[in-house]
Design a protein that fits this description.
Length: about 160
């Protein structure tokens, strides 16, 4: 398994570590992908219960920890293919945000968006990562998040107001 990238407070690479040796004080890199369709829907993924962080919570359909030799962009292209079978290129990505987060771990997150007009049945989810995927209308998603934010990962509020 490739090492994860450890960065400093300026998001500059300082070392590489095996994932299981990462300390709570280490800052890693995470990439996320907001997937929209033409029907004003966002694709969500429910994290499997075996995940270390936020098991059973709704999240972006695609996210991953950036590994040695990867950029935020190359990581999310790889993760889209692995987690839901979505083939995209770096040139398809639209930059959304770059932020520092502290939840149960510390990380810089870069989020991109892409349009994918595909029925849910055409996605091939990775069962070890994603329990369920579904398209959710953005207005309904905002209401769902407002009423029960505990259904979502702690940082999901960043994504409910993103525009295509």
């Amino acid at each position: 398994m490739p090492n994860v990238i450890i960065v400093n407070e300026k998001d500059e690479i300082i070392e590489y570590k095996p994932r299981n040796e990462k300390l709570p004080t280490d800052i890693s890199r995470v990439a996320g992908l907001v997937i929209f369709n033409s029907n004003n829907e966002m694709l969500l993924g429910k994290r499997v219960m075996t995940k270390k962080n936020d098991p059973g919570k709704w999240d972006l359909a695609v996210a991953g920890t950036v590994e040695e030799g990867e950029t935020y962009e190359s990581n999310i292209v790889k993760e889209a293919q692995e987690e839901i079978g979505l083939c995209i290129k770096e040139s398809d990505l639209k930059f959304v945000l770059h932020t520092y987060q502290e939840t149960s771990f510390k990380y810089f997150s870069t989020v991109f968006s892409v349009i994918a007009d595909k029925p849910i049945t055409e996605f091939k989810k990775e069962d070890e990562e994603v329990e369920e995927i579904r398209w959710v209308n953005m207005n309904e998603l905002r209401e769902w998040y407002k009423n029960t934010p505990e259904d979502f990962i702690p940082t999901f509020g960043y994504y409910v107001n993103i525009k295509k």
